[in-house]
Design goal:
The chain is mainly beta. The protein has a single domain, classed as SH3 type barrels (Roll). The protein is built from three helices and 13 strands, in the order E-E-E-E-E-E-E-E-H-E-E-E-H-E-E-H. A six-stranded mixed β-sheet has the order 5-9-10-8-7-6. A five-stranded mixed β-sheet has the order 11-3-4-13-12. The protein starts with a strand and ends in a 5-residue tail after the last helix.
């Protein structure tokens, strides 16, 4: 695999084990979703549930953000098409899919057009070419699909951080 294992031990302090594997060999379980003409992978570990919103679930918070009531919680909504500047099939929340995501104890909803299925995904790092364009918002890597299409793998924590900073762009 071309990885390394580093084991450090100190008497009375314990042992630490560091395992390094090339990013191109990391495999995650992911949910393939579509927003407009683009497909993305969301790590399953971050997905709590998915749902279709009803109009009575949708409201605007005092700070002007869209929120959705899921059970007893009001969760902010991030529209994936706005984050990545693609044209969606639907702008109305009740016509798409809301995916409840969790990162470090906080939840939010990601609005997408369609769930396409669950699959194992090989993570590839974003190339230096892509990185030259600056921060690719909310993306941790990419994968190459069977048909040769490149799909971005979403970084849920990064999306949440952007939401907490007050913007999705």
């Amino acid at each position: 695999m071309n990885g390394t294992i580093d084991i450090k031990s100190r008497a009375g302090h314990g042992t630490s084990v560091e395992l390094r594997i090339p990013l191109t060999l990391a495999i995650i379980e992911g949910m393939l979703v579509r927003s407009g003409g683009s497909r993305y992978i969301i790590p399953i570990i971050n997905i709590m549930e998915s749902l279709q919103a009803r109009p009575e679930m949708i409201t605007i918070a005092p700070d002007g953000r869209e929120v959705v009531r899921v059970r007893d919680s009001l969760l902010p909504v991030v529209r994936l098409h706005e984050l990545h500047k693609v044209e969606p099939d639907n702008h109305a929340l009740e016509k798409g899919i809301l995916i409840v995501l969790e990162a470090r104890g906080s939840n939010f909803c990601l609005f997408v057009d369609e769930l396409l299925g669950q699959q194992q995904t090989v993570i590839k790092g974003l190339s230096d070419y892509v990185s030259r364009f600056g921060n690719v918002g909310g993306v941790s890597g990419c994968t190459i699909m069977g048909n040769g299409e490149v799909c971005l793998i979403l970084d849920v924590q990064s999306i949440l951080d952007r939401l907490n900073e007050g913007g999705e762009e």
